[in-house]
Amino acid sequence: MSTQAPSGPSTAAAPAVVWRVPRSAGRGEFAAALGYLLPSLVVFTMFVFYPLIKNVQLSLYETSPLGGLGLFVGVANYTQLIHDPAFLNSLRVSFLFALYTVPAGILLGLPLAMLANRRIRGIVVFRTAYSFTIAVSIAAAALIWEWLLDPNVGMLNYLLSLLHVHKVGWLTDPRFALPAVAATTVWKDLGFNVVVLLAALQGVSDELIEAARIDGAGRWATFRNVVVPAISPALFFVGVVSTISVLQSFGQVNILTQGGPVDSTNVIVYSIYRNAFFNFRFGLAAAQAMLLFVLVLILTGLQFTVFERFVTYQ
Amino acid sequence: MTTPTPVAPSRPAAAAPPPRKGRGDLRHMAADRGLDLLMVVLALVVLFPLLYALGTSLKTTAEVNQYPPTLWPHVFNAGNYPDALRVAPIARFLLNSFIQSGAVTVGQLVTAALAAFAFSFIEFPGRQALFFLFLSTLMIPAEVTLIPNYLTVRSLGWLNTYPALVAPFLATAFGTFLLRQFFLTVPRELWDAARIDGCSRRRFLAQILAPLARPAFATLAIYAFLSTWNQYLWPLLVINSQQMRTVQIGLAILQSQESVSWSLVMAGIVLIVAPTIFLFLIGYRHVVRGLTAGAVKG
To answer: Which domains are present in chain B?
Structure first.
């Protein structure tokens, strides 16, 4: 009737809300509401909105080593960046990193989620085991993997030596450092992928699968033509969210490789960190952060528009 | 061609008589046992790094440097734990992390409950706009606010203090969204009835709504605690005194000391992941709910 159509992604899964407020609700209600919103608004203003604007400003200035505003330089920081081989390298590394981690994370997460979706006794034990890495911090994960990847006494090189593969300097060889950091990341993020994909699989109705079986579809055909389309929104969600989170990776790089060897793992955020807090070039780092923001925004927008067209799951 | 493929090519197959009992069941059961076994093996593979870390934390220094490496300690040596606590002030790191994560969790519960209440029980002009303003904070990656926030915290003289670790995280759009979703399922009649009985908004929220929303609070609390405990970049920036380090940063410090053996580092890791693993195990349901609510949030 007088309810507006839900217009945002947030309302997609929410019960219908009456957005239009009756005219009688006036300033009194606004003041009352503001009292409840104020604590959040103060924090957001101080630590999200103000710094966002401040960051834009910083990116347009030359800055002092203490972070003070110097000369206004317009888009000079940006033009410098897009011609800077180091920045272009960090973009390339980040994209490669996403390429190594995101598909692998889905390809490993999906079979685990499907097994975790079986109806057998004690299944919760397996569900917990497969999503266990959610509880592990990136710092702990990185240190454990540094130990596994140790060139001399590490477990991985030992296992490879059983296959007569020569010792690999996982974190010191520019060819292997990024894949090694990616492997750490895939393991760390596996739990998240399993949880989201399992939730999606639980939303696929039994009747749908039963119908496919009756129609003579085998396991593979059912999976390919019924299950995958049914969970495609979740697959898409995991893909986009993982890409966003991988583009923001920092901890594993800082612990495992510090961006090296020869910048082969110097991802965007690590490069921002070095520029701001080691080279004290805050303006340039702020511009880098803005470009990362644009990338993330494009991915988020893509997700909202595509996500809205599908039914969400519980 | 002697054996028919299990994939029946067309509809008539469905009309065929059901497969004889016995053999079909047996084959089914064998396949099920096979899947069971596969699940156990995969669980061990996924957990391997953690189990191996646990094993390493109990090895002697000699065994940890031995090649080929041993899967599980031959001689148990629990001494790495007291040693780790001695080499680095891990107890202090744990305390710092508990204070930070605890304060952030409580703070987020309060601010999110208040905001969610306004968004679900008060009809005020500009509600939609403000709600979208809240949601917009989810799209701003932390890196964009990192440098200005660092400068803010420094200018306030907050470097190496708890306020620096806590204040920026005291509001949460995700938590507000989560609680609002729950509040919207509470019938309006409840509020109408309470109001007729002379109940104020504040009392309604504190004494009627909050107890009802306990499951949603639990989800938010576990989510907030886990993610704060596991923070890395922000504490690395704003803390550089040994006494104020959080566990994640302290851990890396432990590892960077040349003389420290891997068994000691792994003991440190076990100590710092234990609280989150405990929380994950008792709150698994809530963790899942938090993450899949995140799926809606985007």
So the answer is: 26-80 (no CATH), 83-297 (1.10.3720.10)
Inter-chain touch B144–A25, beta carbons under 8 Å: no
With contact defined as beta carbons under 8 Å apart, do A45 and B137 qualify? no
Is A47 part of the contact surface with chain B (CB cutoff 8 Å)? Answer: yes
Locate tokens 């606010």: which residue?
A: B145
Contact A11/B at CB under 8 A:
no
Contact A304, A240 (CB under 8 A): no
* Neighbour tally for B203: CB within 10 Å: 12
A62 sits in which H/E element: strand A61-63
Quick one: pLDDT at residue B4?
Answer: 40
Four-residue CA torsion sign, B196, B197, B201, B204: negative
Q: Rounded CA gap, B126 and B124, in Å?
A: 6
Helices then strands, counting H and E runs in chain B, come out as: 17, 0
Would you say B144 and A289 are in contact if contact means Cβ atoms under 8 Å apart?
A: yes
Over chain B, what is the mean pLDDT?
88
Closest CA to A257 of A149, A181, A188: A181
- Class in CATH terms, A84-308: mainly alpha
- Whether A312 has a pLDDT exceeding 60, the answer reads no
Q: Is A69 helix (H, G, I), strand (E, B) or coil?
A: strand
